[in-house]
Amino acid sequence: xxxxxxxxxxxxxxxxxxxxxxxxxxxxxxxxxxxxxxxxxxxxxxxxxxxxxxxxxxxxxxxxxxxxxxxxxxxxxxxxxxxxxxxxxxxxxxxxxxxxxxxxxxxxxxxxxxxxxxxxxxxxxxxxxxxxxxxxxxxxxxxxxxxxxxxxxxxxxxxxxxxxxxxxxxxxxxxxxxxxxxxxxxxxxxxxxxxxxxxxxxxxxxxxxxxxxxxxxxxxxxxxxxxxxxxxxxxxxxxxxxxxxxxxxxxxxxxxxxxxxxxxxxxxxxxxxxxxxxxxxxxxxxxxxxxxxxxxxxxxxxxxxxxxxxxxxxxxxxxxxxxxxxxxxxxxx
Amino acid sequence: xxxxxxxxxxxxxxxxxxxxxxxxxxxxxxxxxxxxxxxxxxxxxxxxxxxxxxxxxxxxxxxxxxxxxxxxxxxxxxxxxxxxxxxxxxxxxxxxxxxxxxxxxxxxxxxxxxxxxxxxxxxxxxxxxxxxxxxxxxxxxxxxxxxxxxxxxxxxxxxxxxxxxxxxxxxxxxxxxxxxxxxxxxxxxxxxxxxxxxxxxxxxxxxxxxxxxxxxxxxxxxxxxxxxxxxxxxxxxxxxxxxxxxxxxxxxxxxxxxxxxxxxxxxxxxxxxxxxxxxxxxxxxxxxxxxxxxxxxxxxxxxxxxxxxxxxxxxxxxxxxxxxxxxxxxxxx
Lengths: 333, 333
Hints:
The structure is a homodimer of 333-residue chains.
Chain A: E1 5-10, H1 15-26, E2 31-38, E3 46-49, E4 52-55, E5 57-58, E6 69-72, H2 76-88, E7 92-95, E8 124-126, H3 130-146, E9 148-156, H4 164-178, H5 210-223, E10 230-233, E11 242-251, H6 257-266, E12 270-272, E13 293-300, E14 307-315, H7 318-332
Parallel strand pairs in A: 1-2, 1-6, 2-5, 6-7, 7-8, 9-10, 12-13
Antiparallel strand pairs in A: 3-4, 9-11, 11-14, 13-14
């Protein structure tokens, strides 16, 4: 058993923060002390952890003193402000925002894919974007086997990616529908129940969204393929908490479906679910609150040389956020 | 005003048949007589048309006598049996099944894309697969402008594609969820509410589904590009009646987003909805019971040479089925 760690969570009351607390407990992370930190409006709330009740305190620099790990999940602006303070106070900061992901002094880590990047950290470690993390759990093993040359991804992203209010907005939309009513969207730009919104995060002048650009840039950094051609279309779908990605990928070497399946099956954190004859393939309902990401529908791509088409599903709140952050910490102790 | 036509519908009580009756009425198709035909179990049902009530009769060869047009929408086996009989009786058969689509003696027609194919018909005309029809309403104008070289499509397919029971199964699944219950799927292989099923139509040995192969083969035939490289992943989503498709396409000529937008805007049956700055892009909720297909999110593809990434949405029951069938008949009179 490791020595107990003093752990802080900023954004403890959010969707990711709550999953993180659950995972710290269920995965027996050696927590000696847990400090739950949030914005002033959540101060005083009490959250359960290991049968006790912990009161939320305000996220201020003094609270970072003595921490071994600080998990930051309160948006990019809060991260930019707090991460350097916490790192200076001696904590290892694992940041769930996009604030530091492309900073060359900050490792961006999927522990199963590029754990070696942790070696050079300077106190701040970035947790990848949710769609990127889940996509790479299927792409990385195939890259290791065949050498990735380019990829095109279309996402099917769950509402949990927009936080707790994303989940309640889908619930409210569906309940309103069942009563013959409508609800005004607030978290999403349009109603999400029974709809598809091809718009995740803000639009850039290029016509791509920030989410689509994150998938490109973060994939390049994590895979150490700085010039990798990547195109993405990111779409919000009426699913609660697991993202799916349809990938068309071209490789350097000749591909083989059996070898691709074997590479997925052998990769830690990925699961091969690929028996079409039995209607078996990964789906969001089977990949909610699940550690592994599922990969299936693997076949030769018919439009790319040495191409594979496949389908990946993973829990947005877990591998896409809280779980991967915790796995980074687990990897470091 | 054209001379009145004697029209038959086989599959009148199905989802597509009902839309067809509505469209015959709302588009003022010159119907002199309407014969509603179906399997024995639907005989005797009465359906409204132009303020009258028409009784459903059994679909038998005698009923085809004297018809100008017969719309067949009762599955491939019924089509194979009935289409030749009706054509022999002198009707122009417009068949919504996959039975004749790849038959070289049968035109496969999107009237806005390849109306010239109608010229050589021998009594049977095939209506394209729903995903193919909607995809090509966005792809064809870009092909005409830049010359299509290859394309990769990921679909987001509504439950209406599985017929009336697909719609009721999504409704039932969502109502059960709101009551804290579950329902056994029967139309789909898995629950569809809040889920994604990467499986539309049957699997083939290649690992592709029939739906994915239809999109490839029918696109090649309609666009007269017999060797076109096409890869598709087809996914059922919890949306009622509009399909969406995320496309990555490579072209022969240099592409330009402004020219691409102009080509879409100028194409009959397509609508350009592409103002990201105003959160405007096509979505299923806006493209249900709509004649045009919407195209948006047009931008340069970052992984293909001369590539464009874009997003198409269209009504599965209309452009994907009943409307296109009727447009074929309209084109012929």
